[in-house]
Amino acid sequence: MLNRLSLRLRIFLFFCLLALGGLVVSALALWISYERVDDPGLLNAFVFAQILIAFGLLALVVGVWLLFDDNIAKPIERLSAQLRARAHAGVSSDLDLKAARYLGDLAPAAAGLADQLSDTAMSTAEAVAAETAHLASEKQRLTALLTEIPVAMLLAGPKHQIVLYDAQAAEVLAQIAHPRLNASLFDYLESTGLTDSYKEMVRTGLEVECSLTSVDGRQSYSARMKPLGGAPGYILIFDDSAAQIAPDDARPLVYDFDLLETDADEGFENRHLVDLTFVVFDTETTGLLPHKDEIVQIGAVRVVKGRIVEGEKIDTLVNPGIPIPAASTRVHRVSDRMVQGAPDIVEAGRSFHHFARDAIIVAHNAPFDMAFLHRHSGKMGVEWSHPILDTVLLSAVLFGASETHTLDAVCARLDITIPEALRHTALGDAVATAEVLVKMLPMLQARGLTTFGKVVVETRKHGRLLEDLN
Question: pLDDT digit string (tens) for 149-162?
């Protein structure tokens, strides 16, 4: 049971037990002395002596506990978090040896070991980087080759989740909604055409011609569904897509073949962190009062299989319908002129809701941003029932509640730099928060918090931080 408590709480309980034991021993000693004196007139004197001893003993224990907490418990907690960050999040900043100066040779020994491991990791990283560069070059060649083929192509798993899509397929999907890796094709295409064609393909083992319709009924597509040989899933090729890629446009080839092996039916609570899909977002607003202020900008990115998916993002201005105060504009640099013609919160909120479908929403101080969305959920016609993770609480779990948990402070601890031009922009802060999350995931797993359910249990222990923050 005690193993589930933090080090600082266990030490606090130890000093509480020490104080209680001292009070019991002193009271027992005075009672025995009083009995031996056998003089009832001295009772008040003995009681007064016990009161003085109790106050003195409690003051002494509290003082020693505070010194121990500041100079031993907190530095141990901080040193552990820094070592875990170096081991699992790729952080290279020096350990804070000054804060751990009362831990004897522990901190220098830990720093020496960390430096030695860093040198070993550096040589390994150089070899990996060389191979990665080679693979990146090969990927560029493959992307260019696929882009030259005048069809849109995507790969889906056996449960119709998107595993790979090329530039043309991204254009086709974008006609319906934001392209999203690991999203269900049923979010884009009417299910009957897909499932009927898939059954026929499985039955015959051959390529199947299929006619598909977008979920909104506005688009029709002629496509071919091809099996992947012995692998699960299929390739979907749109023969007559309307996607046209301009020469200067980005030509993404987005994929993660591990998604073919992911059990998408398992509940969030029991799924491993590495198998989850996260949507990390941030908002800029007209002010700090969610019950009356409005959103002026939404930024969001997707994290799949522990990595940020390039190209899958939202960066949109929102017309708040009210004037933006000059003080707010000085912070996020969004003015009334910039939001003219931008979508309102209903349209922007629905788009973001679809972007975050079947994903865990992540934000830094999530209750603040989510309050704006919840307030307008009725007009949007959606329910914000997504699971939520807050990087403020994750920081408290990993680095201790006594540390500072602002986005700037967390980024500094994890060697993440937010470009000055992007700070206090919705997308800039969302990307920084996503980078924080990506570095925190292996640190959480190293703590034994391998599933979403276990992480949520730990974060709830620090809920008071958000109450104080808001």
Answer: 557 889 999 899 99
Q: Compute the distance between CA of residue 220 and CA of residue 217 in angstroms, rounded to an integer.
A: 8
Give Rg (Cα) of the chain.
29
Residue 193 has pLDDT above 80, yes or no: yes
Q: Write the pLDDT tens digit of every residue in 30-78.
A: 898 888 887 888 888 888 999 999 999 999 999 999 998 888 888 888 8
The H or E element that residue 191 is part of is: helix 191-204
> DSSP code of 357?
T
Closest CA to 422 of 315, 318, 323: 315
Interhelix angle 426-446/391-399, nearest 10 degrees = 40
Asked if 371 and 365 touch (Cβ cutoff 8 Å), the reply is no
DSSP 291: T
DSSP tally for the chain: helices H, then strands E: 16, 11
- Enter the tokens of residue 347: 């349209």
Query: Dihedral of CA 10/14/20/21: which sign?
Result: positive
The C-alpha atoms of residue 278 and residue 449 are separated, in whole angstroms, by 17
Q: What would the mean pLDDT of 21-31 be, rounded to a whole number?
A: 92
- The residue assigned the tokens 């008040």 is 44
What is the rounded distance in angstroms from the CA atom of residue 287 to the CA atom of residue 293? Answer: 5
* Closest to 173 measured CA to CA, from 191, 158, 185: 185
In three-state secondary structure terms, 303 is: strand
Contact between 253 and 166 under an 8 Å Cβ cutoff? The reply is yes
Question: Does residue 6 or residue 207 have the better pLDDT?
Answer: 207
CA dist list (Å): 421 to 299, 319, 332: 15, 22, 10
Residue 452 contacts by C-beta under 8 Å, 6 or more apart in sequence? Answer: 268, 269, 270, 271, 273, 276, 360, 387
Report which of 183, 182, 178, 151 is spatially closest to residue 167, judged by C-alpha positions.
151
Tokens standing for residue 278 = 């996260």
User: How many Å separate Cα 457 from the centre of its chain?
Assistant: 15
Length of the chain: 470
Q: Which domains does the chain have, with CATH numbers?
A: 2-115 (no CATH), 149-254 (3.30.450.20), 267-469 (3.30.420.10)
Alpha-carbon gap, residue 91 to 419, rounded angstroms:
18
CA–CA distance, 365 with 352 (Å, rounded to integer): 18
Give CA–CA dist 78/445, Å, rounded: 18
Chain position carrying tokens 């552990």: 80
Q: In DSSP terms, which residues pair with 164 in a beta bridge? A: 155, 255
Predicted TM-score of the model (pTM)? 0.80
Work out whether strand 388-390 and strand 360-363 pair parallel, antiparallel, or are unpaired: parallel
C-alpha–C-alpha distance, residues 354 and 372, integer Å: 17
Lookup result for tokens 């506990």: 65
